[in-house]
Amino acid sequence: MVPPESRAPSTPTGTPVERQKWLAARIDEILAAPSLARAKMGVAIAEVDTGRAVYSKNEGALYNPASNVKLVTTATALATLGPEYRWKTVMYGENVSGGVVKGNLYLKGYGDPSLVGEDLWKMASDLAAAGVHKVDGDLAIDDTWFDDVRVGPGFEQKQEDLPFRAPNGAVSLNYNACSIHVLPGDKDGAPGRVVVEPASPYFVVKNASQTVTSGRSALTIASKEQDDRTEISVDGRVRRGDAGHIEYRRVAHPDLYAGYSLRELLARRGIKVQGKIVRGAVPSGARPLVTHYSAPLGVLVRDVNKRSNNFMAEQLLKTLGAEAGGKPGTWPKGVDAVAKFLETLGIAHDQYKMTNGSGLYDSDRFTPAQLVTLLRTAYRDFRFAADFVGSLSLAGADGTIGHRLEGSAAERYVRAKTGTLSGVSCLSGYAGAPGRMPLAFSILMNDVPEHAATDARRAQDAIAEALVVFLSSK
Questions:
Q1: What's residue 7's pLDDT?
Q2: Apex CA 202: angle with CA 201 and CA 206, to 5°?
Q3: Which of 163, 368, 402, 411 is 20 to 30 A from residue 122's alpha carbon, by CA?
Q4: Of residues 35, 67, 200, 391, which has the active-site annotation?
């Protein structure tokens, strides 16, 4: 027997009332799947233009929305900062004479969530092009645009070293993560070859891996915080002939990570830093030497939502805090900025719970109705609607639902944000059809049994497809 969430929906006919009855019956059938009997589920679906409810089930109950919280964070940021907002990262010096920076060279960050090694290389190149070849002081990292709290509320629930739990800082690089490449040595019994990118003396590598000529590669890779370094440990075996193994890990100190990486890049451009890597605020008399600007917020929100990038979402929330609440940016200030925006939508701060910007762990609570209100508002605000809608994954095409709904009626007609945690599965966004105004929908599922996680996603997909078929029948 084919489960109801897997069946291709029939086409509704008749009057508008009859078609809506068809939709309600179809959704009820999907949600009644036996494997989801123990799950707590809420659904809200409404017309984007009129707000008329098309389907509701427990729409006013609070649920853990997981990464659907990123919808709230990005919509608030676009509405508050504007799609044109750019982050800057600046090198400062107090005195430059004869190609020498007298005293310290300062790198100050303003929370850029997208700064990567290529950007630092360009800054180093620009400094060299300006004639600088030496810094006779230290390379000082100014991280004061944010406070010194590195991990978001709720992140303490698990001590994982994976990049989705990367720390945050006003000076951040490569999403505050590194790649670790492990390749076989040149002979049996030799240590494996470990390459950390970007190469930097910031990393302390402890390599206990061994090359073997038979059997499978089996490696354990971990990162651990030291006082001012990140220790990368590699253990296990790597088989000769293996193409290599790559894993990604979080770094512990975003500012020092960027500092050591920059010093290496400066050296490659012929700029010698005499001193050490230190932390320090830019003095009032310093002048900017090189400035890097990020892509606009309207572009970067695509990475936040399509890729569900936790690090970028938290950088965005702390940026909101700094811009709306004053330096330094903090999580509470960012949450306050969100609250002010949601109040304009009629969502009071005591009607939901939000502590971080990514939705990671058991930290946030929203109702399906609140998310649909947010989605409707974002779609109808011409100032940032295109940027927000375009940031969502496109069914069967890209992002976290790029592999979902392929070949169905909903392919390329659903734009949505996923949300997944242990026991949590969510999908919220828009369903459309040619020549029709879309529907905004939010499907929040909590207490999903582990064995039913796939069924939960199939049910969400089936509902999304039913919405497209319903709209197409009008």
A1: 61
A2: 80
A3: 163
A4: 67
At position 157, the amino acid (one-letter code) is: Q
Give the distance, in angstroms, between the CA of residue 362 and the centroid of all CA atoms in the same chain. Answer: 17
Between CA 428 and CA 417 the distance in angstroms is 5
Three-state DSSP at 137 gives: coil
Provide the 3-class DSSP secondary structure of residue 315: helix
User: What is the DSSP code (8-state) at residue 6?
Assistant: G
**Residue 265 host element (H or E):** helix 254-268
Residues 32, 34, 35, 40, CA torsion sign: positive
Residue 296 CB contacts under 8 Å (≥ 6 apart), including other chains: 83, 84, 85, 86
Q: Is residue 474 flagged as an active site residue?
A: no
CA distance 106 to 78: 30
CATH number, span 4-84+297-472: 3.40.710.10
Measured between alpha carbons, how far is 130 from 50 in angstroms, rounded to an integer?
Answer: 57
Omega cis (within 30) before 201: no
- Token pair recorded at residue 159: 């001590």
pLDDT score of 428: 98
Largest interatomic CA distance in the chain = 83
Of 293, 368, 299, 297, the residue nearest 110 (C-alpha): 293
Based on the number of CB atoms within 10 Å of its own CB, is 136 exposed (0-12), middle (13-18) or buried (19 or more)? middle
* CATH 3.50.80.20-classified regions of the chain: 88-149+255-293
Point out the catalytic residue in the list 35, 70, 233, 391. Answer: 70
187 is catalytic: no
The pLDDT value recorded for residue 1 is 40
112 closest CA partner among 319, 310, 306, 263 = 319
Tell how strand 424-433 and strand 414-421 pair up.
antiparallel
67: annotated active-site residue: yes
CB contact at 8 A, 345 and 71: no
What's the one-letter identity of residue 401?
I
Q: Which residues of the chain form CATH 3.40.710.10?
A: 4-84+297-472
Active-site hit among 233, 261, 294, 308: 308
pTM greater than 0.85 (yes/no): yes
Which regions in the chain score pLDDT beneath 70? 1-9
Options 3.50.80.20, 3.40.50.720, 2.60.40.1180, 3.40.50.1100; CATH of 88-149+255-293: 3.50.80.20
- What the block records as the tokens of 372 is 């649909």
